[in-house]
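This section describes the prediction task in plain terms. A model, or a person checking by hand, is given the sequence of a single protein chain and must write out its three-dimensional structure as a string of tokens. No templates, partner chains or ligands are provided. The sample shown here is typical of the held-out split.
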Amino acid sequence: MRVQLFRSALGAAVACLLGSSALASTLIVHAKVIDGSGASARSVSIRIDQDRIVAVGQLKPSRGETVVDAKGLTLAPGFIDAHSHHDRQAEKTPEMAALTAQGVTTIVVGQDGESALPLKAYFETLARSPLAVNVASYTGHGSLRARAMGQDYKRAATPAEMATMSTELAEDLRAGSLGLSTGLEYDPGIYGPPEEVVALAKTAAAGGGRYISHLRSEDVKLDAAIDEIIAIGREAKLPVQISHLKIGLVDRWGEAPRILAKLDAARAQGVDITADVYPYSYWQSNLSVLLPERNFQDRAAARFALTKLTTPEGLRIAVFAPDPSLVGKTIAQIAAERHADPVETYLALTRQSEAYRATHPEVERVDAVIGSAMAESDIAAFIAWKHAVICSDGMTHGLHPRGFGAFAKILRVYVREKRLLTLEQAIHKMSAQTAAQLGLAERGTIAPGYHADLVLFDPARIADRSDLDHPNALATGVSTVWVNGVVVFDKGVPTQARPGQVVRRASWRPGG
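The expected answer:
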């Protein structure tokens, strides 16, 4: 009887131990911890239990605890991509190695006015089939317009259509949307007048959301576009953020200080305006974006675009559904093959793309181009701005290297090589500051109670390897990445774990 009682007691004790959080916890030791706040690195240990950080300090291993020896590497909060398109075709690569190899643990999607609708259904899909990284989303103005107006969108919305858009936006906010995004250089958002955008921004503000925008112009009419977003912040009384802040007009290169002075003046007047930036001098968009009037016969406008906004040698085809054999070629190369003028070649390709789009509405991405357009000095000034955070504006399946290298490039170029930022400043911009600017709770900081999204890396070795010739090369220098306490990337390879969660805005509560 005594033996039986002893065995029962021992079994109960073992069962209790196996089910305890102590056994499930992980202790990371011997790391240089940069917590995301901007403070200097500390030599402390971090304890993870389930999906949370539970202790930070001089900690001793608990019995049965997994101990990870960081061997002097830097431990930081997982990076947050403030403007991402990695959700596109994410089901093909749910391990998200393009991101985790750089230390990115959360992506913010629904950008440029384009999002899943309704977000409630999208979030439910992510809950059933999660990714390796966390996902937060805005609600896209263009997507709202397309639902309310169909193909008849080249006009202002009617009051009834506005009511439909406002109702759907409010529903998304109740589901946890971060707010409203616009792509005011793109169809169909380009046809939405300022008063339409302000009205929807007020709906976002009423629901506790924010506003983020690809401006109406990043080149010729940049000042007016910035004035518009400042006015939206002032009138709708909500935080506003400029997507991928840049100066895309050759004649205005070097004017970053003047642009930043305008933004600082707006902040001094009470407008909470911020920006995100990617560290590349070339963008990716669609063919028609260079023709704001959408006149595909206008040789003068096309010539201006290929002189002042980019060049035939600097405009490379990234996607072209009508003829995939053109992918990777520049307008100059295609023109030479056709023995044609680059201006007419560009216009002909644009017309071909628009015709294909009209007859193939089921094709999600008909065309995309990569264009060289920005000055390095302006990029550096925007990155250094106190209220700028970092983004990729990238995707996993594309030819722009930013999707695989933006965050590693910041650490290689702007921290290690140019010393524009300290390591602590860069990590702050890529973690805690991003979480604060976008309204993400309990992310971006190494502190008890925060989600255990962490990256362990070597500051002397972390580097981007992606470029225009090798756009999908993984970054190097990251040792281990945890998402919600689960290792998703280790020793240079993804683990195939998919612990990513849906991230809703900080003010969100279940049931709206």
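For orientation: The CA atoms of residues 155 and 355 lie 21 Å apart.
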